[in-house]
Amino acid sequence: MFILRPLLAASAPKQGKMVIGTVKGDIHDIGKNLVGMMMEGAGIDLIDLGINNAVEKYLDAIEQHQPDIVGMSALLTTTMPYMKAARRSTGNSARPSAPMPIGAMWRWRSRPPRIS
Ligand code: B12
């Protein structure tokens, strides 16, 4: 990943900005990192907040970077309610129209939960 990331990022024309992070209470980040790398490969400037992010971290990053996309990641089912709260808060922030994809293993492998 360390080797591929800069190569992918250099190969595509720039086309937007994304804030991505794993939500509070969750330290899983392999999937987030893969998604981030793919986004960079598609020409997206990535602001990676890392793991265990409180809502305030997303809000600060949205205000500071004005992203086109905000992505949240979580693998623990226990973080589902927090994703919901974070999504509501960030949806009311500076860029309410920014798409907000969420990613989580439980989301892909079972019936999609109701987040919003
Ligand atoms: C690796 C792993 C860990 C590593 C994490 C290392 C790291 N740096 O991430 C370590 C060992 C630290 C770990 C810890 C724990 N883990 Co763990 N872990 C896993 C494991 C084996 C693999 C997850 C993984 O990386 N998959 C590979 C990546 C590529 O897939 P992915 O994350 O799903 O990502 C894809 C999609 O979800 C999506 N995606 C992800 N993020 C995003 C974001 C956006 C914006 C988008 C669009 C898409 C997207 O795209 C990705 C690429 O396809 C899973 C079991 C499994 N087989 O899945 C358990 C699992 C997730 N862990 C689990 C648990 C319980 C824990 C612990 C609580 C264990 C403990 N008692 O301490 C702790 C968590 C502590 C915490 N507070 O977070 C459970 C969760 C159960 C549940 N239903 O909640 C699982 C399912 C294991 C199990 N069967 O019990 N874990």
TrEMBL record:
Pfam families: B12-binding. It comes from the Bacteria. Keywords: Cobalt, Metal-binding. GO terms for molecular function: cobalamin binding; metal ion binding; methionine synthase activity. GO terms for biological process: homocysteine metabolic process; tetrahydrofolate metabolic process. One of its GO terms (cellular component) is cytosol. InterPro entries: Cobalamin-bd (IPR006158), Cobalamin-bd_sf (IPR036724), Met_Synthase/Corrinoid (IPR050554). Residues 15-85 form the B12-binding domain. PANTHER family: METHIONINE SYNTHASE (PTHR45833). This is B12 binding protein.
